[in-house]
Amino acid sequence: MPQSSPYSALADLSVAFVPPSVSALTDAELLADKQLLADIRRRLDAADASIAAEIAHRSRPELGHSGLAQRMGSRTPEKLIQHLTGVSAKDARTQVSVGSMLVDLAPERPSSDITAPWLRDVAAAVAMGTLTLAAADVIRTGLGSPTGDVTVAALADAARSLIALADEITVEKLAIRAREVRAAIDDAFGLEHEKAVHERRYLRINRRADGSLRVDWGLDLAASAEFEAQYNAVTNARLGGPRFVDPDAAAAADAVSRDPRTLEQFAHDMFLELLRLGALADTATFVGARRPAAQIVVTLADLESGTGAAFFEGQGEPVSVATAQRTICEAGGVPILFGDSGEVLNLGREFRLFSRGQRVTLAARDGGCVWPGCDRPPSWCEAHHINEWARDHGKTDVADGVLLCRHHHMLLHNNGWRIVREDCTYLLIPPAEVDSQRVPIELNSTSPAVRRARERQRSVLVSA
User: Fold this and answer.
1) If 386 and its partner were Cys, which of 129, 210, 283, 419 is the partner (CB 3.0–4.6 Å)?
2) pTM over the 0.90 mark
3) Does residue 327 belong to any structural domain of this protein?
4) What is the pLDDT of residues 111-123, one digit of tens each?
5) Rounded to whole angstroms, how far apart are CA atoms 464 and 458?
6) Are the C-beta atoms of residues 412 and 384 closer than 8 Å to each other?
7) Where is the HNH nuclease domain (predicted)?
8) Are residues 331 and 451 in the same domain?
């Protein structure tokens, strides 16, 4: 490296190094320096991988506790590399796997000991600093190993073709291309790969420091395609998807694009809504017979006043009493009531949800969310007990239930609205902050059959 280079001190650890200022560089100089550092990094990575492979060799399982990693207090060579360098577990594994390919290049290594002869050109490209470790690793994993139908020579040819592509496409696309190349020379690869990915499927739930959950979901290929199609359908308008000729579809897409939520928040809320809808599926075909009852711990005073805090059993993070009431109303939670002195007053009564048949009846009667101006269909709605099941001992029957979309169900519980029934008429009572007189607003069904029946009833009354 020329001594005039601002990066000439990189290799001299006795000299304090501070990254030089780059704001004054021209575009050409900026890109040239970026390329220079990439070239340096590839050479360093090749050396690093060779050392990682030797660490792995000196820590091989047959050495037991006398192996290097275990003598240094690490369970595996990858753990030792992580401890020494601070890299991720994935990077440590890549260093070891690519480093083992470099070992095969050693001139003194007998040909009988070469583990992956079809990857010798890949290893040589890494050693020369023309191929990154990441690219080498995706070629290795994508091509796989020889079989009865796939020869070493065929894989070696495939590897050379992928090396030529590495500078033209991203590592992610190179990984896809490597699997495509393998599939082209191996009729059985597609099914075997799909089976392998299917076996690796998982869903893990981890609790974060703030009490919320983080979901890590590894899907198989079919599920990935289905999920991605659903994700694209949900977020299409936010990502500049196709324009719509139909005015209604265009208006819906425009509303989504102007939604104040971030893309991540929007996707979160949409998929949570889909999860809730799935839980309402036919219990004969959906996993689990019914939505689980959440046990909610709350004081009687807080539940009656609608203020304070409630807690879902097993979670230390408080939720509002309004959230507890809404959950009890919709999901059939069991309230565990405490008195002012901490004594248990009530362990709750057997929870009861609107049955599937009752929901069908509510859908036919209400036509969707009954909130004035809302156009959500029944499939997007929750069944609301107009006399609160938890606090007012409301009944779970059709007469005492109405359909509300989640947004308006939350608004009702959180902002002091209420729905009452007078015979067959349902009235929405606004909070005093909205209407100081609290004038009732009649709720009307959007079901055309219900409208027709009521119109006929009115015509009969008029004619009488």
Assistant:
1) 419
2) no
3) yes
4) 777 888 999 999 9
5) 10
6) yes
7) 357-410
8) no
